[in-house]
Amino acid sequence: MMTLEPPNSSREPLLAYDGDCRMCIRSIHSMELLGLLKGVKTESAVLVTGEDRELLDSHRRSGEIVLLDAHRQDVLTGAAAFRWLLQRKLPRILGALLDLAPVFWLMCIGYRFVASWRRLISPPHSAPDPTFPEPDWVARYRVSGGVVLIAVLFWLVPLTLGKPAASDDLVQALTIAAALIAVIGAGLIALISHRGRRIDTFAALAAAVFVSTIALALLVLLKRTFEDNGNPLLEPWGLFAGSTIWGFGVLFRCRNWLDSYPDDRAESATGSPLGARSKPSKMVVLTIIQVACQIWVAFLYGVY
């Protein structure tokens, strides 16, 4: 356990973070404004040099902050480092609460969800660095987060639009269609994804489907409210265009993060049929899956 008040030292504790993550940079600036980083040196991990770099590389994982103490003997990562920073600022009684197992467990879950989805919420401008792979828990949190987003749609869309308008026969057909979309979509994700990027591709698609479906539901609700004003933008084509662009925006933001590692690009170009793993092809395929999900929702609720 790292002491809260290290003895006098010529060096300050060092907090290293992913410098290519815009969300990380904004978080560091926010913590500086809150006074959490007083007396702590902050630096992008790629800029750390010397002995600090050797110690950092032995503990660093992509997606986690790393805190080195003043004597470079103790190392904290992730939620443990964040707890240490909070305990320096909070009163002793409140800081002690963070040591309770249930409280720290919740901190770990919250930190890991944010850390695992940060690359999709605020993706970098380049493909991932294979030198520092992400921890195993990142994939689990991205998969569970994607499943949660889809599950929320099944609760939120009926809450917004009411009961489905489709007949029993159409509902049965749509059930089969949903299974086909899921199976074909999974196969296409496996085809277009680079090595080690399938989970990220699924998570990005789940986020795009979530955003576009919510947009479609809100536009349908708006159409029902102003049904007699004759606005062409509230026609079916306007609803689809207005909702699809939101999901496409999510996919477009993630296009670089879903790319391959630099060393794999030449191999992927020759090993993937018809260049299916190229950025344009990947965007087209994912957008088609997203639109198929929207059409399914449209038929279920009679938006045509």
Describe the protein in words.
This protein is mainly α and 304 residues long. The protein folds into two domains: 14-117, no CATH class; 137-300, no CATH class. Helix content is 62%, strand content 5%. The protein has helices spanning 22-33, 50-59, 78-89, 92-97, 101-121, 136-161, 168-192, 198-225, 236-253, 265-271, 279-300; strands at residues 14-17, 41-44, 66-68, 75-77. Strands 2-1-3-4 form a four-stranded mixed sheet, sandwiched between helices. It is elongated, with a radius of gyration of 23 Å. 27% of the residues are buried. Residues 4-8 and 266-275 have low confidence and may be disordered.
Distance between the termini: 61 Å
Largest sheet: 4 strands, mixed
Number of DSSP helices? 11
Give the DSSP E fraction (strand runs of 2 or more residues): under 5%
Unreliable spans are 4-8, 266-275
Number of strands: 4
Mean pLDDT: 81
Overall spatial form: elongated
Order of helices and strands: EHEHEEHHHHHHHHH
Helix content: 55-70%
Question: Structural class, from secondary structure content?
Answer: mainly alpha
Structural Rg: 23 Å
* Strands in their spatial order, largest beta sheet: 2-1-3-4
Number of individual domains? 2
